[in-house]
Amino acid sequence: MLRALAVSFAMLALTPGPCAAQATPRTVEFPNHNVSHKQPTPHSNSAAGSFSGSGEDSAAENELLQAANQSREHAGAPPLRMDESLREAARAHARQMIANGRLDHQFSSEPPLLERIAQISPLPLNHALKIERAGENVAYAPCAPDVHDAFLRSAPHRQNLLDRDFNVAGIAAIWSKGKLYVVQDFAHQIPSYSAEPSAKLVGRAVDELRQQAGLSELVQVTPNLDQAACSLAKEDRPNAHLLATAYDNRKMITYTGSRPEVPPQAAMSMLRDPGVHQFAVGACFARNAAYPTGTYWVAILLY
User: Fold this and answer.
1) Where would a tag sit more exposed on the chain, N or C end, judged by fewer CB atoms within 10 A?
2) Which tens digit of pLDDT belongs to each residue from 64-102?
3) How many Å apart are CA 45 and CA 143, to the nearest integer?
4) Is 266 helix (H, G, I), strand (E, B) or coil?
């Protein structure tokens, strides 16, 4: 599958002072099956002199989360929850920065951000409007108190930090040679449903659409379409024609989404067809190359 890729970088170097720092955010978008990777930010009261030796500074990580949530509260954005698997993904990248002695969002030994997160974290992440979104800001500093404020003064960092769509974060703060290396990975976690609850959500959505259109309720039948829906993930994209031929060329709707109960606008006319009387639903949550953090694959068969 061909995907367009747009990358924009911003580098921030603070004026030398008691806590000079360097930092960089990034935004990445794949407009078709998109992956918008945005990247978040740091702050801590820890300083090199207050942390003995080198290694992970969990107190600084928690301070960074607290500072982020305070700023988000002032901006009217919902708070973030620290996720341990995201924190491990962030720490892994921080160690890469330490090993390479510089800031970067992707080293030669690493996959892109979403794939890097997916390798470590089992979280199902949102890709609303076909845009998978995750975020990362990276920084290092001899101390941390001024870093959060510096990010708030930087437009791209502030945008990442206060993004209302993020609800989980993984924050790493690791000392090395007197520098505190910081990585914050942000994402939007979605509910995780098994096949049966997913199918029920889709069924209720179909009933509501028919009711709103003043049409009779469809009878839901139960051929096993879950396996068929999962087969779509192996193709990297939903393809109604592939399934329709296996069901006597009946009307078939297939789609992907973070919310299985929201069918695409293009399917509305089929779902509101007065000549349809029965339907069946198959659903599957799966990961593949197009959706490394997972998505719901849905198939609706209309009779």
Assistant:
1) N
2) 899 999 999 999 999 999 999 999 999 999 999 999 999
3) 8
4) helix
